[in-house]
Amino acid sequence: MFNQNKNHPLHHVVIVGGGFGGLYAAHHLRKAPVKVTLIDKRNFHLFQPLLYQVATGGLSPGDISSPLRAVVAPNKNTRVLMGEVTDVEPQQQQVILKDGELTYDTLIVATGVSHHYFGNDQWAQKAPGLKTIEDALEMRRRIFLAFEAAEKEADPEKRRAWLTFVIVGGGPTGVELAGAMAELAYTTLKHDFRHIDTSETKILLLEGMDRVLPPYQPELSTKAQASLEALGVTVQTKSLVTNIDDNTVTIRRRDRTEQVQAKTILWAAGMKASKMGKVISQATGAELDRAGRVIVKPDLSVPEHGNIFVIGDLANFPHQDENGKPLPGVAPVAMQEAKYVARLIEKQLRGETLPGFCYRDYGSLAVIGRHAAVVDLGFVKFAGFPAWLAWLFIHIFFLIEFDNKLLVLIQWGWNYFTRKRGARLITNQEVLPGQEVEDKNGQMPLKV
Amino acid sequence: MFNQNKNHPLHHVVIVGGGFGGLYAAHHLRKAPVKVTLIDKRNFHLFQPLLYQVATGGLSPGDISSPLRAVVAPNKNTRVLMGEVTDVEPQQQQVILKDGELTYDTLIVATGVSHHYFGNDQWAQKAPGLKTIEDALEMRRRIFLAFEAAEKEADPEKRRAWLTFVIVGGGPTGVELAGAMAELAYTTLKHDFRHIDTSETKILLLEGMDRVLPPYQPELSTKAQASLEALGVTVQTKSLVTNIDDNTVTIRRRDRTEQVQAKTILWAAGMKASKMGKVISQATGAELDRAGRVIVKPDLSVPEHGNIFVIGDLANFPHQDENGKPLPGVAPVAMQEAKYVARLIEKQLRGETLPGFCYRDYGSLAVIGRHAAVVDLGFVKFAGFPAWLAWLFIHIFFLIEFDNKLLVLIQWGWNYFTRKRGARLITNQEVLPGQEVEDKNGQMPLKV
User: Fold this and answer.
1) In sequence order, which residues have a C-beta less than 8 Å from that of residue A409 and are 6 or more positions away?
2) pTM: predicted TM-score of the whole model, two decimal places
3) Which residue in chain A is spatially nearest to B414 when comparing CA positions?
4) Where are the beta strands (DSSP E) in A287-371?
5) Would residue A422 be called left, alpha or beta, if left means φ above 0 and alpha means ψ between -120 and 50 degrees?
6) Do the chains contact at A422 and B434, CB–CB below 8 Å?
7) d(C-alpha B448, C-alpha B442), whole Å
8) d(CA B331, CA B398)
9) How far is CA B448 from the centre of its chain?
10) Which one of B72, B81, B192, B439 makes the best mutation probe of the A interface by having the most chain A beta carbons within 10 Å?
11) Cβ neighbours for A121, distance < 8 A, ≥ 6 positions apart
12) Helix spans in B131-268 (H)
């Protein structure tokens, strides 16, 4: 029943993944003479750039999620299918789902990436990453349980370990998480405890390269680090995590090894393609890069399969950089790629074509705490409060639904002026604070 | 380290439970010459009357929860302890926690009730109840997965079962849930699907008594039933559920037995005291009623233990009704009891006393769908839109924090005018729609 009606004359575009790439592809095809099926495992689009706010209790999951069906409902040519694609058969032009199959004329794959642990998958239990709502709620659970456990802990050394938060990875996620953690510990929770002084919280941000935000201009990295340090974050660059065990992080830094006792370790490093990369590679022979991303042609199609496109974080698009460095895995790239592919499909249906995709970089930005950010618009770089405002409005502008924009703006204004964070529920709680480590040797269940 | 400082001259009040009873007790003691410890298993206060809105995607968990620490932070004499009380020792005046103990001068127990299945605990897996955030998210998951599964289902009979929702229990929770389900199926989701027509959804509300809202005046029950039926809900009174199995609900109604095929069964019936009832009974010899609630004295204390009070849903207060019927388990009762006990403690510290507790009933109300409700204020009863407005403002007024009031009001206004429900994420998803029943014989995991 998933099959296209054979009598239906319309070209059928199947989009796998409802992130920025998939959703914008559907959006730009809404008036094209095609029929669109948008497939996702989840029933909602997630605004990942604000996920760290959920992890730190500033926003609720519902604030940064939009039901895919509601978003796509006005597009009369589009249907949504909640399902998981397991394979692709380019000969039959079929995608195979767990519970059926579907014929396509054009396939757009936009399933993104997940975090990975550089071959140390056992770290997943100890240092949760931040890609899904469940990840964010797990981080939130651990962060707030740690303060609760510290409040109860009589032993000063153990209390210090509960109040030590290690964030691995100094990219935008790590930087934003560290800033939010500092705001939380040094401002929001200041008056909430009676035994501990949350200003003793240690927030350690580890980055393997020589500066935070390595993809940005060095001067912005410097400003970002200064802002983080002003907030109270300890930034350690050129620091590689070599082991995570028993609430101890082992760090190698300039040939020296040191160990940090920390009960809460948050993972913001490492990225690995979703498994659709492998599926596409096996089905089409397309080459993958080391992270498992599909290396695409200048028109974002897969070699020798002009009707299969890969866009967004899952695509490695190396054609624009003289060193062959792929475009970064950020929302603006996915959105522009989606628009390009939609336009290309329309052109091709008219027997026309388009020159290869060209990404227009409008800049990068990252937020640091309550009112500082760094913005690099190419022609101008700025930091501090104006950058924070720019960051805020750009993010709110790109939130998919108007009610989300409104809610996030209000929540944000409220949090800003009151320095509160209302959404700090510990949910899916299996153990009480202070118990889990003794019982389980630091291996809290990752399940949420 | 939980022990009171023996040199500290202040009377120590320990409150177990951060619901309406516990929180209001702490609030009314904030200026008393006492030291207060508020213990809860969770780190947040939950506004249970709006939990059905989370279950149906209208509000987010964060909207109806307030961090206990943040709420209590301004009360300088109060500390919050996240922990679970396992026992009470009246001789030593101690409460025993899972990880320590605590000495009290006065103990206030306000741990409320949970739902129960009339001895059929195996139904818990098949028909989740609605007492916690996790319960609400599990209901939300099942409700939205059911529509997704129906969209994919080719077999008409199975599709009908996916589109049949049975709500067991016609009290306020069941009535409000049924109204919200009707709004969801017949309005919100109307344009979101391509294969199914959500107006074919069947919502069946089952009540064992001869009318819905049995504690209210009969004329309001009649109005409530009429409003529900106008919304499209099938109301069946005098109907007892005798079995829930393999997605089939067996109903006995006037000596006839009928079976309904339904994939989603929501439990809004049955109430059982939290386990602190048993603990108090064993420790003090206090009598319990059939639901496990502690039968309290006119001053809400436990017989022969004048410094142990039980308030809120966990208390059976039979002194006001000529037939000895206890006060109902609603927030206003808990709040008034909390205030009474706080005043009594202050009086007792001055060597004075108070006459027994007397509940002042300001009325009852329940909401039905988007703009109908029933309100019974004793001297006046009304229904329809004015009742809905009254319901809305009373609920928002009693939301603990101002930012929650604001957010809920906006979210509500938005949902009202757009007929949308933004918070309909399916989270903690383990299986895709349409798979679980075949795989697991209808026993979806209740774990969230």
Assistant:
1) A396
2) 0.85
3) A403
4) 294-295, 301-302, 305-310, 315-316, 364-368
5) alpha
6) no
7) 16
8) 10
9) 18
10) B192
11) none
12) 133-152, 156-162, 172-183, 218-231
Handedness of CA A442, B427, B45, B326 (dihedral sign): negative
Q: Could you tell me which residues are beta bridge partners of residue A367?
A: A373
List b or e across A284-315, with b for residues whose CB sees 16 or more CB atoms inside 10 angstroms: bebebeebbbbbbbebbbbeebebbbbbbbbb
Q: What is the ipTM of this complex?
A: 0.79
DSSP string, B214-238: TTS-HHHHHHHHHHHHHHTEEEE-S
Domains and CATH numbers, chain A: 11-41+83-115+272-349 (3.50.50.60), 121-270+370-439 (3.50.50.100)
- pLDDT tens for B41-98 read 999 999 888 899 999 998 888 888 888 998 898 899 999 999 999 999 999 999 999 9
Which residues on neighbouring strands pair with residue A366, listed in sequence order? A374
d(CA B55, CA A333): 36
Residues of chain A under the 50 pLDDT cut: 1-5, 431, 434-448
Length of chain B: 448
Given a contact cutoff of 8 angstroms between Cβ atoms, the answer to whether B214 and B207 are in contact is: yes
SS3 string, A149-184, reads: HHHHCCCHHHHHHHCEEEEECCCHHHHHHHHHHHHH
Question: What does the alpha-carbon distance between residue A307 and residue A445 come to, in Å, rounded to a whole number?
Answer: 42
Chain B residues with CB-CB distance to A418 below 8 A: 403
pLDDT at B22: 96
Chain B residues 184-223 with a CB less than 8 Å from chain A: 189, 191-195
Could you give phi then psi for residue B148, rounded to 5 degrees? -65, -45
Q: How far is B43 from chain A (nearest CA, A)?
A: 6
